[in-house]
Design a protein that fits this description.
The structure is a homotetramer of 181-residue chains. Chain A contains nine helices and no strands. Chain A has one domain: Tetracycline Repressor, domain 2 (Orthogonal Bundle), CATH 1.10.357.10. Chain A is 70% helix and 0% strand. At the A-B interface, α8 and α9 of A face α8 and α9 of B. Chain A binds a DNA duplex (21 and 21 nucleotides) through α2 and α3.
Chain lengths: 181, 181, 181, 181
DNA sequence: CATGAATGAGTCTTCATTCAT
DNA sequence: CATGAATGAAGACTCATTCAT
């Protein structure tokens, strides 16, 4: 499948270092076919991005909606991030590491995407309800997600050797410490 | 100066999207001269990386060595990171955002570079001395730096509007919360 | 209809700048259907050429055969050319302007086509009968048709603003002057 | 030389049928060099056009300025056209046959170029002075040049076998007949 | 038969690198 | 040494043609 092969290559080498012939070779789909599905290489990268983000959002909504309090919601987010990192590392890496400016001009940056906006809102509500320490809700959201995302980046780059599913709870504890009352 | 012009362009467009002609134009140095200083475009990017990292390391050593306890040392690191982010954003962005895999094969990744190894060591010692909570020192280091680095990334991408010199203390408090006893 | 849509496009953009997809779009006929009627794009262009020329020839014969003397015959030719130019400019442009070398290798060039051979013959006979000035019949035919065709070219390219049906008589007078006794 | 090789190929096959590799092969100049002289294939074709037209104009001015009356001027024009046709057929064919719309959007069409505008002016003046028959000066100019240009086209396409330098006088006589008093 | 998705050779163009001056 | 014109391999993309449905 083209989207999957393209994402794998984009993640491995970066957008500009991946040639259409390389995608042709890896996906088994001909140049012409690729250009009948996607109007350009840029369009292909955008669709990869959207599909990946949409899929993540769908899973995110599912998880978070079944949680009640602030801690449960943030924990559900973090666990989902860790799961995706382990189960579909290309997807996670495409979301966090790719320099999307290289090909996306009109798309929202990841930090403005729904999941991250929701994290901000969850944090803002948590502060209001007194479940979190007072302070700038945006900085609190940044701090919480910073712990999670940094761990993901180091896991994806191979620096972290253990599965995030194993060490995830300790990371969540650390992340939670940045914002709890 | 070539290194500076190259770094600015690499940060703006990414390694592969920057052509030698563009560097020639921006730096005012001729193609031939560039190729007499650097053996290839890849070599140029590596030297930019090393020079940037060396400079950061020198400042890091200066700052941290004058600190006594664990908190002071980590705080000195974070303040330095925030200062560089505000004063020389290209340098910071080149260190944290550039996909070095695109051109570096044998160089150490940032997370293994001296400053980050030292942070790990500082954290390890802090745990030993009882100044930090017990647990995996590596995960603790990741958590602390995660808060700092994530804030830097969002500042560099324009999402965070305030200077990190202003909101830095709140971020340091958050980061410290992940590891304190 | 394919031939008509193709001719319109060939006239507008030139043979090589017209793609089969463009003809498919404009004619509403599928790619497969086009390739079942015509063996190739070149063959399509040839059939357009032949059909256009055949149609012109049929009208030419009709007109000229009902004329008696040399002047009447040449005048009938010129009026027909002007009429086609105004009523079906694509047909005329395809006959006079298209660089047929671009796709025709074995077809007769326009200047050797029946109507033009007949003009030559009419002129030759006219000279013999003393209705035209003596001289090289070929050059005389070239001169007469030159005035007519040049006017057509400039009309088709929009340089001549008046309908050739209006200014045609003056042109015919000019053309006739080149060969009359 | 690139311009010359390109013109030869454009004349032989038409703009769209000539590839850059073909020009590289025929001119002996590398792809990169061509693109350092010309910004694009279109730009190359435009420069060929301008250079060819400029050269013709220079010779035209030289010839016509040394003529006194209307007949001499028009004769000088026609003789020049015939000479160029015989001596540098590519130049003449590039001026009269190429579909310049295929690559030129902002350039003046040939019929509006200086030489042809001057012919119109010469004819207009000739009518005023009583040296030419009264009537629409534009149609008269079209008629005169029609005879000349049509002969050139047929000579270039190989239909006319004799040198225009030989049969030129008869053609000029015919052309002159269209406009003389 | 008709369709139009798929093919891949070939197009224009860029750019890392070299080397004559 | 420094220069920058020249090289040509490789990239994104198009389109005439085929063939499974």
């Amino acid at each position: 499948m083209v989207l999957r092969a393209a994402r794998k290559l984009f993640v491995e080498k970066g957008y500009h270092a991946v040639s259409i012939p390389a995608i042709v070779k890896d996906s088994g789909v001909s140049t012409g076919a690729i250009y009948s599905y996607f109007s350009s290489k840029e369009d292909l990268a955008k669709q990869v991005y959207e599909q990946t983000l949409d899929h993540f959002e769908a899973r995110f909504i599912e998880r978070v909606s079944s949680s009640s309090n602030t801690y449960e919601k943030l924990r559900a987010f973090a666990r989902l991030v860790f799961e995706v990192t382990e189960d579909d590392p290309d997807a996670m890496e495409y979301m966090v590491s790719i320099r999307h400016e290289e090909f996306i001009t009109d798309a929202v940056p990841l930090c403005y995407s729904e999941p991250f906006r929701w994290i901000q809102q969850i944090v803002a509500e948590g502060i209001e309800k007194g479940e979190l320490k007072t302070g700038d809700y945006f900085l609190s959201a940044v701090s919480f997600t910073g712990v999670i995302i940094r761990a993901v980046e180091l896991r994806l780059s191979g620096v972290v050797k253990e599965s995030l599913l194993e060490v995830g709870d300790e990371l969540i504890t650390n992340a939670w410490a940045t914002i709890k009352v």
